[in-house]
Structure formats: structure tokens, C-alpha cells
Design a protein that fits this description.
There is one protein chain. This protein has about 350 residues and is mostly helical. The chain has two domains: about 1-120, no CATH class; about 125-355, MetI-like (MetI-like fold), CATH 1.10.3720.10. The chain is built from 16 helices and no strands. Helix 12 (about 270-285) packs antiparallel against helix 16 (about 325-355) and helix 14 (about 300-305) crosses helix 15 (about 310-320). It is globular, with a radius of gyration of 26 Å. The termini are close together. One of its GO terms (cellular component) is plasma membrane. It is a multi-pass membrane protein. Keywords: Cell inner membrane, Cell membrane, Membrane, Transmembrane, Transmembrane helix, Transport. Probably part of a binding-protein-dependent transport system. Probably responsible for the translocation of the substrate across the membrane.
Length: about 350
């Protein structure tokens, strides 16, 4: 197992390199980089959002926009060539493509993502501030999905083919078919002051006066803010785990040891929760990291944007809109790294839950 774990960890390196490299060169052919935006802002008299000249050295470390010529830049029309050259140098695009690429790789190996182009802070600090929000949303969603899906799946297995099994399956399939962002819009319209009720806040994870609240008030305020985003995130997450639990229990119930236990006169609940539960839940418990990955990655971006939660998804979205390449690639790097490590953890969990599983032997 140690050799298998080592191989998986070593595979993280080329995977990260491939993802960052592919996105780096895609950016080279994408129009509208940060220099283009800066020149356009100057031409139209909008100086807000431009970084100060004192940060030019740190900006030059991981800028990934195309290396533009003056004649190719929309924002360069009517501007002094010296101004264009100064801004291009400030953002680090006066350097050759290969030099910027290898500088970026070296900095990323050291987790040095540079500074944001349009925010007065380092990329790493912005990620540190945003990551807890995304993790919180993912953990709450995963916890609720497990608390609902496991009992529901067990009951569906016990009452397989009944009316309860049929209509509950219909409900979770409908929930699975509804996109989380569409359900989020419905929640906003109904409960967040959209057109009907104004029961829940629409922005942020806590209120502005959060620090002044007592400890119980902080808990209530936090739960008040997180309710709608979590509900919107989990709406489509019940189907997979519920059906997995149901099928696992049905498979175990048909096995010979259950028939033997019933023949001995054991109580049905003891058979179900003392024997069947332990064996049927191996796959469900081992799948926890994978479920968290899906909640963390799939639902975070749109939900964070809709509910103005300052998480990693919203941070990456804003960076993409602003062409803030150091911040955009920093969030991509962290997202990818977390996903790869959690996938490894998922495999390790299978082995811990069921020692008969041997990935190294495979």
C-alpha cells in the first residue's frame, strides 16, 4: 500500500503540470488580457482597478496573458506608445513567452502565486481567506446528504416495490434533474426577498454586526445565512447516495448469512442494523471523499456567485471576468490539487474500510 500511495502522490505532479500548461497556452490565444483592459480603461478615463506601479515586480512573476503587439491591442488606439510600453512592462508581458512560462512553473512549485493584478493583496492570501467558505459549504452539503440519504436508502431497501419506494424514487429523481443554480434562483425568489417572502439574507456568510453578537447569536446568524445556499447545493445530491445505499442493502439482504440469521429466529431489526448495516455501509462510507469532491467542485461556483459568498468559486469567477491571471491560475491550481488529493484519500478510505481491497495488487 505504501508503494501504491507513493505512486499516486507522484502522479499528482505531472497532472498538475499538464493542467497548468494547457491553460497557460490557451490563455495566449485568448483576447482581452489585463494589459488590454488597462489600456482600454485609460483610453476611456477609467483608472479604477489599475494596480499601482510599486507592485510591478510581483505582478511580473505569474502573468499569463498573451504578449501583445501595439497594433493588435484595441486599447492602444490613440495612446502614446511610451504609455503602452510602460503598462506592458508593468504587467510583465515584455518578457518572452518561454521565460514567463518557466518562471510561472518555478513559482508554483514554491506555492508563490504572486500578487493579484486588480486587488491589493497576494493571491495566496486571497485564497486563504476564500477557501474556508467553500470548504464549509461542501462539508455542510455532504453531511446533510449523508444524514438524509442513508436512512432513506435503508427504508427503500426494506420496503422495496412499495408505494413509498416508488414515490420517494420519483422525488429524488426530480431533485436530481433540477440544476442547483435553477433551484437557487427559485429559493431567492420565494424566500430571499425576490418576489414573495423575505426570510433569509441574500448576501454573505454572516451579518455585518457578526463580531458584536454573543456566541449563540453568531451560531444562529451563521445558520441563517447558510441555509439557502446549502439547500440549493444538496437538491441534486440525494439520488446517487440513496440508490447506492438501497442497492447495497438489498444485495446484502439476499445473502446466505441473512437467511441463516432469520432461520435462527433473530429479530429483524438486529439482523438489519447489526449484521447487514455493517457490511452494506462499506461502499457508502468509503465514498465520502468522492461525495465531498462533487459538492465542493460542482456546486460551489454558481451557488457562491448567486448568494455572494466569498469562496474560492466566486474568487475564481471574478478573476476570470477581470482577466486577473495570477488569481485565476492560483485558484485553478488549488482546486486541482485539492481534487487530486481527495481522490487519493477516497482510495485509501476504501482500503481502511475493507482491508480485502488491494489497489497495490491490482
Amino acid at each position: 500500500m505504501a508503494a501504491y500511495l507513493l505512486r499516486r502522490l507522484l502522479l499528482v505532479i505531472p497532472t498538475l503540470w499538464a493542467i497548468i500548461t494547457i491553460n497557460f497556452f490557451i490563455v495566449q490565444i485568448a483576447p482581452g488580457g489585463p494589459v488590454d483592459q488597462a489600456l482600454a480603461n485609460i483610453e476611456f478615463g477609467q483608472t479604477t482597478g489599475l494596480p499601482g506601479g510599486g507592485a510591478s515586480e510581483s505582478h511580473s512573476r505569474v502573468n499569463l496573458s498573451a504578449n501583445p503587439g501595439d497594433s493588435q491591442y484595441r486599447g492602444s488606439r490613440g495612446l502614446d506608445p511610451e504609455v503602452i510600453a510602460e503598462i506592458t512592462k508593468r504587467y510583465g508581458f515584455d518578457k518572452p513567452l518561454y521565460q514567463r512560462y518557466f518562471t510561472m512553473l518555478w513559482n508554483y512549485v514554491r506555492f508563490d502565486f504572486g500578487d493579484s493584478l486588480f486587488r491589493s493583496n497576494s493571491v495566496l492570501q486571497l485564497i486563504k481567506e476564500s477557501l474556508p467558505v467553500s470548504i464549509t459549504l461542501g462539508l455542510w452539503s455532504t453531511l446533510i446528504i449523508y444524514l438524509v440519504s442513508i436512512p432513506l436508502g435503508i427504508k427503500k431497501a426494506v420496503r422495496n416495490g412499495s408505494a413509498f419506494d416508488i414515490w420517494s424514487s420519483a422525488l429524488i429523481i426530480i431533485g436530481y434533474a433540477i440544476p442547483s443554480f435553477l433551484f437557487g434562483i427559485l429559493l431567492i425568489v420565494l424566500f430571499a426577498g425576490g418576489s414573495y417572502l423575505d426570510w433569509f439574507p441574500l448576501r454573505g456568510l454572516v451579518s455585518a454586526q457578526f463580531d458584536a453578537l454573543p456566541w449563540y447569536g453568531k451560531i444562529t446568524d451563521y445558520l441563517w445565512h447558510i441555509t439557502l445556499p446549502v439547500i440549493a447545493t444538496v437538491i441534486g445530491g440525494f439520488a446517487t447516495l440513496t440508490m447506492l445505499t438501497k442497492n447495497s442493502f438489498m444485495d446484502e439482504i439476499r445473502k446466505q448469512y441473512v437467511v441463516t440469521a432469520r432461520a435462527k429466529g433473530l429479530d429483524e431489526k438486529k439482523i438489519l442494523y447489526r449484521h447487514v448495516f455493517r457490511n452494506a455501509m462499506l461502499l457508502v462510507i468509503a465514498g465520502f471523499p468522492a461525495t465531498f469532491i462533487s459538492m465542493f467542485f460542482t456546486g460551489s461556483l454558481l451557488i457562491e456567485v448567486m448568494f455572494s459568498l466569498n469562496g474560492l468559486g466566486l474568487l475564481g469567477y471574478d478573476a476570470t471576468i477581470q482577466r486577473d491571471y495570477p488569481l485565476m491560475f492560483g485558484t485553478l491550481y488549488i482546486f486541482t490539487l485539492i481534487g487530486l488529493l481527495l481522490n487519493i484519500l477516497s482510495d485509501m478510505t476504501y482500503t481502511l474500510v475493507d482491508p480485502r481491497i488491494d489497489f497495490e495488487g491490482r
